[in-house]
Amino acid sequence: MASGTSWLSAGRTAEETEAAHDLLQLAYSLPPLSGSDGADGGSGGAHNDHCGKAYATSSNLSRHKQTHRNLESGGSKPCPTCGKTYVSMPALSMHLLTHALTHVCPVCSKAFSRPWLLQGHMRSHTGEKPYECHLCYKAFADRSNLRAHMQTHSSVKSFRCGQCHKTFALKSYLHKHQETSANCCVKT
């Protein structure tokens, strides 16, 4: 744990500390509230002028910028197994793991490339939902789903239904609304 965040864990359970870290990550992923674009990599994070994504550190921004490189610009690396091309070695390294499905579910035999993916999958069999929203107490089996859910509590709802004009914090929630609201909306 970074020394700058040690105050997060003072007197808290592991679950509370993990939730605090998740909230911090969510805060870092949101655009700054002020007019600053955070491009200097300071406390406001680092901002990509190409796609508008913001990152907590300039090194994370630099890593992300590699994904915008053109595959034909040179330096791209093909996967030796399937031939899919990647513009950065870290991305290729992560992809290579998908070809080695060594973590097998003892219940249904589904295989995963990483142990944490298997661990999350096991919750589909047990029904366990250890990640709870501290605002509405909705529970989730996966931490990333909780992080996405936390955006629904944000006042920023950038995705608008073209039919009923209801707004959503996440694009996936807009799509779900459009798919389940056949009487209201037609997916465009």
Automatic annotation (TrEMBL):
InterPro entries, A to Z: Snail/Krueppel_Znf, Znf_C2H2_sf, Znf_C2H2_type
Name of the molecule in the record: Zinc finger-like protein
SUPFAM superfamilies assigned to the protein according to its UniProt record, in alphabetical order: beta-beta-alpha zinc fingers
Keyword Nucleus: yes
UniProt subcellular location: Nucleus
Database matches in PROSITE patterns: ZINC_FINGER_C2H2_1, ZINC_FINGER_C2H2_2
Residue span(s) of domain C2H2-type: 46-73, 77-100, 103-130, 131-158, 159-180
A Pfam family reported for this protein in Swiss-Prot or TrEMBL: zf-C2H2
GO BP term, pick one: regulation of DNA-templated transcription
Any one Gene Ontology cellular component term annotated for this protein: nucleus
Similarity comment text for this entry: Belongs to the snail C2H2-type zinc-finger protein family.
Region ranges (Disordered): 57-76
Key words, A-Z: DNA-binding, Metal-binding, Nucleus, Repeat, Zinc, Zinc-finger
One Gene Ontology molecular-function label: zinc ion binding
